[in-house]
Design goal:
The protein has 720 residues and is an alpha/beta fold. It is built from 28 helices and 12 strands. Helices cover 63% and strands 10% of the residues. The longest helix is centred in the middle third of the chain and has 80 residues.
Length: 720
């Protein structure tokens, strides 16, 4: 369920019974464990459910864990509402300072996130806490402050503001101002609809004081009719207001009925000790009114007994709050320490990156200067080769940083596709072989008990893990050293086969402390003396560790300085019991000849367009150009049937992006719209980008920077 879907269902959920609501919210909270907007909204509605049912302790218990982590949640208005609930609970427990503390957190959050539409409600809530403390002047100050924000607030807030304004003025005995505010609430904001029960508690006292018997009797009757339907706090407020009016009016039968109702309420909500104190105070005042000394003494004795309970409960709650605050402080300290460590590591990382990026860039610029100053073809060819090496390294640095970013944000998609294990091993061998040869390193390979090669899983990430480990082995092994690669098939379970990949080198090795504390952390590199000319980002092992975890595998490392290092990676893969033969489209075309083919190139970057145009025209291709998806769509519509042999489509473009353009082309009512090969040609290189391209109707995905051979090979695959 999404946050938006949750909000849309609330009106339906509101009609359910209490147990059904409890089941609904707990089900969501059990499933939604991340700190998302959906979880915050569900917590608020779940806690409010118990608050309205008069169970303050349960409401508080739901909210207290949220207090520890609220700053890590995605922002939504319900976070403010959570603090409203906590403020209301504290208010009902007569801890008004704590109530204001929670309301002020909501105000700060509202200002930080520019939610000025919430400020009127928060200031209005603060005013209520001062009314409860009989500080009516301060209460009116805050309620007038709330009134200033009504224009920016959502419409219904005006009902609460003017209802509370009426209450504050009534308590200060400024009855005309109170009446004006109450009339505004009812007439302008239709207050009787949303805050009906609150208005009844204010209005019954106000009209009694004004001597308006007709309105007073109407409000009194409505309170008595609705008492059993009201939420706990509103029912109690109405009882208190009506109780004092009835005592003054000598309606003793009704006073007895109200006190009986409060006693029944307390039987169900025995933990509300401060309400017990208030009820005993009512009974004392009632006995005093009747001149019943015995009843007065009994009420005082019960009040003293309850007061002792209140003191014990208050001390327990205060101890719990202190413990909670200690936990919060400890968590904040850990977060600060973690942030400090991360900042130090990232500062070191940036220093290394500055060196590692500037080094190949300096090489590129230097080689360009040398090319400009020489006419020797051999020298120019040598410089171009070094430029290619430098740019390949820059691309490797970029890929590592982006991969780590995706892993840390949990955005990596692990594939579940058929592949051949022997083919992946062969591809990795080809990639590493030349590195090892150039470094004077010998590679030895063996397989033990491997009988299954058709598997299902993420071949892309398996390849990435192996290349990272082997590249490190080559990097940190001196000329004349050796690398040993062993592949073992372990015992299968439930159609899942675990494979162990062991990579042992005779390189420089690592210290035990480095392995324990730094090896798998992002942005960590060995000591400066171990760094080769192109040492990389220090992200390779962190990427390996994260990928192994995501693939439900394990990784172990043994190392001794000056002797070498051994990595053992175990990864489970599903057995592909029905391997299909490769489709014709996947077979390699040995001879690439695409002369005369008409290719529509859709690219908004002039330099990229120039490069693609050069590569294609050199291969004898007729190039047609469009700088956005809309123009490409129009050109395809205007072309004759089958005119274009293929389309090379960039993804991120103005006016219309490549994915949209592809979908629109595929929807056209002409035969070639469904069959023309459309190949993504984009800097969006992640697996999810490939998936989006295929889902939009593209046939293939090429990532920038483009490789000439791969570009021509792909076009040949779809056009010959």
């Amino acid at each position: 369920m999404t946050y938006e879907e949750f909000l849309a269902e609330e009106s339906v959920v509101a009609q359910k019974s209490f147990p059904e609501k409890v089941a609904y919210y707990t089900n969501i909270l059990d499933k939604e464990v991340a700190h998302t907007k959906l979880r915050a909204a569900a917590l608020f509605h779940y806690a409010r459910l118990y608050y309205r049912n008069g169970d303050l302790a349960k409401c508080r218990s739901i909210m207290e864990p949220f207090l520890l982590t609220y700053q890590t949640y995605d922002y939504c208005p319900e976070i403010l509402s959570c603090f409203n609930v906590l403020g209301a609970v504290s208010h009902d427990e007569e801890d008004f300072n704590l109530a204001r503390y929670y309301y002020n957190i909501a105000i700060r959050f509202a200002k930080e996130h520019e939610s000025v539409d919430r400020l009127a409600l928060e200031y209005s809530n603060i005013s209520i806490s001062y009314i409860a403390e009989k500080d009516y002047d301060t209460a009116i100050h805050y309620i007038l402050l709330a009134e200033k924000y009504l224009k920016e607030s959502f419409t219904t807030i005006g009902e609460y503001v003017y209802m509370n304004m009426a209450l504050a003025y009534e308590k200060r005995n400024d009855l005309q101002a109170a009446l004006k505010a109450l009339d505004t609430c009812i007439e302008k904001y239709h207050g009787m609809e949303l805050v009906r029960d609150d208005i009844l508690s204010v209005g019954v006292t106000l009209y009694y004081k004004l001597g308006d018997r007709k309105q007073y009797e109407a409000y009194k009757k409505e309170i008595l009719d609705r008492l059993e339907e009201m939420y706990g706090s509103q029912a109690i407020d109405c009882c208190e207001s009506l109780l004092y009016c009835c005592m003054d009016d000598e309606e003793y039968v009704l006073v007895d009925e109200i006190l009986d109702w409060l006693d029944r309420y307390l039987l169900v909500h025995a933990s509300e000790l401060k309400l017990k104190l208030r009820v005993e105070e009512y009974k004392y005042q009632y006995a005093k009114k009747l001149g019943n000394t015995t009843a007065m003494l009994e009420a005082l004795q019960r009040k003293d007994s309850v007061y002792s309970e209140v003191l014990v409960a208050s001390e327990e709650r205060r101890t719990k709050e202190i413990s909670t605050q200690i936990r919060i402080n400890e968590q904040l300290k850990k977060a600060v320490d973690s942030a400090d460590r991360a900042n130090r590591v990232k500062t070191q990382f940036l220093a290394h990156m500055s060196h590692d990026i500037r080094t190949p860039i300096n090489g590129v610029m230097g080689m360009l200067d040398m090319i400009e100053g020489t006419r020797d073809p051999e020298r120019v060819s040598e410089c171009l080769g070094k430029i290619r090496v430098s740019t390949e390294h820059l691309l490797s640095l970029l890929n590592d940083v982006l991969d780590m970013s995706k892993l840390e944000s949990d955005a990596v998609v692990i594939e579940h596709k058929p592949f051949r294990l022997d083919e992946i091993c062969q591809q990795v061998d080809h990639l590493i072989h030349f590195q090892a040869l150039d470094s004077g390193i010998t590679i030895y390979e063996q397989r033990q008990g491997v009988s299954h090669f058709d598997l299902i899983g993420s071949s892309v990430h398996l390849k990435q893990i192996l290349v990272n480990l082997l590249s490190n082995a080559v990097k940190f092994t001196a000329a004349g050293g050796s690398i040993y690669i062993t592949l073992e098939e372990l015992e299968a379970t439930d159609k899942v086969i675990p494979y162990r990949f062991t990579i042992r080198d005779t390189g420089c090795g690592m210290s035990e402390d480095f392995i324990k504390e730094k090896l798998f952390e992002p942005f960590r590199q060995g000591i400066a003396a171990e760094r080769t000319k192109y040492a990389g980002t220090g992200l390779g092992m962190a990427i390996v560790k994260n990928l192994v975890n995501k693939m439900h595998g394990s990784i172990e490392v043994e190392s001794e300085e000056g002797v070498g290092t051994t990595f053992r990676v175990i990864l489970p893969f599903e057995l592909n019991q029905h391997p299909d033969s490769k489709e014709e489209s996947e077979k390699k075309i040995e001879k690439v000849d695409i002369q005369g083919k008409r290719i529509l190139v859709v690219e908004d970057n002039d330099l990229n367009m120039e490069i693609v145009e050069y590569l294609l025209e050199e291969a004898g291709v007729n190039v047609f150009k469009a700088d956005n998806g809309q123009l490409a769509l129009d050109m395809f519509k205007e072309s004759v049937q089958g005119f274009y042999d293929a389309i090379l489509m960039d993804l991120m473009m103005p006016i219309m992006d490549g994915l949209t353009a592809t979908r629109e082309i595929r929807k056209l009512e002409r035969r070639d719209a469904k069959t023309v090969p459309i190949i993504a040609m984009t800097a969006n290189a992640f697996q999810e980008d490939v998936q989006k391209s295929l889902e939009a109707g593209m046939n293939h995905h090429l990532s920038k920077p483009l490789r000439k051979e791969l570009l021509l090979q792909t076009l040949a695959q779809y056009t010959i």
